Amino acid sequence: MTTVAEADALAALAHAGQVDKTGVPYLAHVRAVAAGLAPFGPELQMAGLLHDIIEDTEWTAGRLRAAGVPDRVVGLVEAVTNVPGLAYEDKIRRIAADPLAALVKIADNAHNSRPDRSARVPTAQAERLAAKYRAARFLLWPVVPAEDIARILTLVNPDLLSELPVQTAPTRGPAPADAPGPPPRATDGRGGFTAPTERLDAHHATSAHSAASSRAARSS
Fold first, then answer.
1. What is d(CA 95, CA 119) in angstroms, rounded to the nearest whole number?
2. Which end of the chain is more exposed for a tag (fewer CB within 10 A), N or C?
3. How many CA atoms lie within 13 A of 51 on its CB side?
């Protein structure tokens, strides 16, 4: 299995009948993540299509390799897969240790953060998830070039572009000399991203409960 089309077919097979927390077929989510990774080549696209296959289906890393999925793709899928007992913040830090895995998770995070998805869940849940996703971005975004983040966001969730540091936000050419400058943005003291007030580990218990509920809903 060496093509994006083959990975898409495998994702369609593995996620058949599954819906996500918003009630949308799971396949739509993984395809959106893969679309955001298209600028980075076929292996990243394949990883996007398969990023939930180990966590949410019966497929294992060994089975993926036996099916011919490239080892690097399987490695990326393993990197973004939940580890039982690992706190959510620790999971994100583990992903951030591999910049390519971070790209996959950034695309996943961007799609999960779309306003049209948030509108499909209860307000309290939407607010909790939004805080969790913001905190994850604070850990993930600094490990990859801002222009790569912008490429993903432009394709997956342009609403998040405003969170990029102003000095690296994408532009459409030089601004006129008399154009007003952007408003100042708070930074973390390193010229980077403003730290969110929420702590990721504050969401771990509720995230685990939500994941269990989602798996139960898919299997019912």
1. 28
2. C
3. 31
